[in-house]
Specification:
Order of helices and strands: HHEHEEEHEEHEHHEHHEHHHHEHHHHEH
Largest sheet: 9 strands, mixed
Number of strands: 11
Shape: elongated
Structural class: alpha/beta
Number of helices: 18
Helix content: 40-55%
Strand order of the largest sheet: 4-3-5-2-6-1-7-8-9
Radius of gyration: 28 Å
Length: 427
Amino acid sequence: MIEFPGTEKEVRQLERFLNATESLPMDSALEDMRAKALAHAERLSNAVNIGFAGEFGAGKSSLANMLAGADILPTGPQHLKLPLVIVAFADAPETTVGWWDKEPKTYSGIVLEKAAEDKPDFISVGLNTPALREISLFDLPGSGALDETYKPTLDLLRFVDCAIWCTNGTNAWRETERHLWAQVPQELRDNSLLAVTHTDLPHVRDALDRVLARLNKEKEGLFNAVVPIGTPVAVKAMAQEPEPDFDLWENCGGQNLAEKVLEAASARRMHDLNAARKDIAELFHPFLETLAGPEPEPEAESPSVQAALGSALPPLNNPILEDWLAAIASIYEDLRESSDIEPAAFLQSCQEIVEDFAERLEQGGEIDPDADWIPGEFEKATDLLLLLQFESGDAPLRDAISILAQLSDNLAWAGSTVATEQSKTGT
């Protein structure tokens, strides 16, 4: 199984830079840096876009359906004519119709025919499929053999990070296909696949070895790999009960294609991650360091000022904050007393305490009812602290302390109530 590289740490660093510079006086250099940081954060936070393109009848929609794990895109020669269709993650099935020059609108459920009646420029289909958290599928309209039909495909390819060009195995990689693909930017070609479809047909299967030998010779500079696939057989293999027919899935090319797609998407994610890391190290962190100066010593307040403040502020009750501060103080004390404490052990202790308080908050009654979002913040912090245990260096420790400080601020606001005279006297 191909693991996607995690981006949470880098996204947090980019967000810290954007937050720290939001209120600074702007000049062109800072505006450029902020625009670059925002572009990195958006790219690393969004799924990798996989585009399916090809001439009419090449089977690209069937292939997209197979990888989406749902039969949602119409297929066949008489199928519903659609614009660009994007298949992406959503908590519940939905269909969004969009235009380049006006606001989109969303329908509940998968309603492609209804969406097509709106004559949109593109349609987005939302599915609750875990794999779509990492990749989005772009089903581009089919192109014909005439040059003027290629332009829409070329225009839409600029929205994808990796492309799968589907060529019909009956007459694979025709001159018209070469003509279009030669106009695709080299960066996209370097991370794209040539999928030879309809290999389940007997006459295609019989000539497949010869066709693949030719295409592998021609792919240099055009595609990262050539992948044969019998899509109907692959769909049948995964639909078997009580479990998929994995031998059939592998023999028809489904497994190989799925792995190649994930490899291409993972490679693109790593490319974007390395670009973000480079700018974080060379631009954003150095700039933030120039902003950080020595903190001034706080001026001691006179007794009269302290007394005035004490009389002006009402006494507050916040039992959960007191317990929280006592719990994290014990962690810091352990850290100070031990010179050889493992960072992972410290992070695990933080995670366990945050998890305990998340459960306590879920029981309710200890924070302001208007702060019902705070238990969710503790749950997210639990996940982040778990992820930090797999990172190295001092940065995860600083991130953990920042997380604890933010949670303390949340509890200070949400858990404080004005003490009554009864609670002060204990009666």
